[in-house]
Amino acid sequence: MLAVYIASFGSPGFTGEPAFDTLHLRDRTKCVGILLGRDNQYAYFAVRRQAAEGIKGSIQGYLKKADEEEKIAYEQLRDRTQAMMQEPEHRTYHFVLEQECDRALRWLGGMERTPSELMILSIPIGDVAKPELAARENHALALWSWRKQIDAPESCDALKLREALQKENVDLKREPPDLGSRFQAVPQSGDEWTARLALVRYSRDREIEFQGTSGMMVRIGDRNAQADVAKLLAQGLQQQSQDVLGELLDGRKPKRRDWLESCQGMLKQEREDYFRASCMEHDIARSDGTVESVFVVRLGNEWKTIWKATVPIDVKTVPKETQQRLESDPQIRSLTSLAQSLGVGSQDSIDRALKVGAATMQAQSQVNQQFEFFRQRYQHRLDIPVLRWNVSSPERRPGG
Q: Is the full-model pTM beyond 0.70?
């Protein structure tokens, strides 16, 4: 997915470490901002409208095209929502469609047409002579400078921006602000529209949720439900015992099921064309593993992952009280006898399993928070922020 953030044009008058990216164009002008990504045709570059409007050259053509496409985007929004409001299957979120249709009509009628503060420009790859990319960690300074409306931040190097933001009492250890809602609307492909509606349907109509391991995914009814840690740990112990036995007998490597295909195979009903799944893979012996979570949508005949996050299972960061609560859970008490029946019933093995279980719960909580941030971004409007998952991110490097 392409995270949408903000940037601007200008001619930096500094020699220090930059906070912004620079695209040198073939007409000898420069774009200063943040390169969001690119595909085979375009480089997607975010800019500050006010700064861009003062630059001559091909930039003016990109700005004009962006404004023309914004009108198309609102026409799309109007037409799509009007058509959907006539279909009974959308009744559970009819009010969302209605308010978005009204907003599109007001914009097209000139009643609410305030120019966006920020813009995404689609710059043809052939028009870019040379990109210079700032260090990724410096982009947080750029984002905060736009959020705090620092004067002409594009003309400041990273050190000056840091000093200016400290005067604004910005805690730079925090996550940078999400400024996606400050962009102009852009036309949406059919796939992007379908994926966006899937998030709305998941939130307001029907949650489709799976949790488990690569060996066993189960459907649950609540996105906030915690995984059955005792069952997952028991399965992990049993699976690892079988893997070791198989390697000893015939040298074969353990096979892992495609857990996403397993989830897809359980979707039998009409309109079950999206789901969220979280897969916990833990290694009891090594006391580590990961929790991987995805949001998947069927686009045509293919399933596409439009969001993905992976959090490591780290026993070193689990508070002691978390493990103690897990130990007192009735489900977990049964794990002791199960572990003993599998021949791994030493106290050390049980303690290690409990630590992995507590760390798994912690990692699951973290990945849930990341998904909630992603989900909430797309609940307020059906046109922005931009939702992209098929655009490659540029390789970051200091200075270009």
A: yes
**24, 132, 365 from 398: Cα distances, Å:** 16, 8, 34
Domain boundaries, the chain: 21-186, 209-377
Scanning 279-346, the segments in alpha helix (DSSP H) are: 320-327, 330-341
The alpha helices in 55-210, defined as continuous H runs, are: 59-84, 94-108, 139-147, 158-167, 190-204
Upper half-sphere CA count for residue 263 (Cβ side, 13 Å): 29
3-state SS, 289-300, equals EEEEEEEEEEEC
Closest by CA position to 307, among listed 383, 236, 233, 385: 385
Q: Mean pLDDT per segment of 10 residues, for the chain of length 400 residues? A: 35 67 92 90 91 87 95 98 95 95 95 88 94 91 93 92 94 91 94 96 94 86 53 50 40 60 91 94 74 96 95 84 71 63 61 78 91 94 91 63
pLDDT value, residue 330:
67
Q: What is the pLDDT of residue 226?
A: 52
Q: Output the six-digit token pair for 374.
A: 């992603």
Q: Lay out the sheet containing 209-213: strands in order across.
A: 216-220, 209-213, 274-283, 288-299, 302-312
Q: Environment class of residue 229 by beta-carbon count within 10 Å: exposed (0-12), middle (13-18) or buried (19+)?
A: buried
Rounded to whole angstroms, the Cα distance separating 277 from 107 reads: 38
How much helix, strand and coil, in percent to the nearest 5, is found in the chain? Answer: 45, 20, 35
Tell me the β-bridge partners of 308. 294
Q: Are 389 and 2 in contact (CB under 8 A)?
A: yes
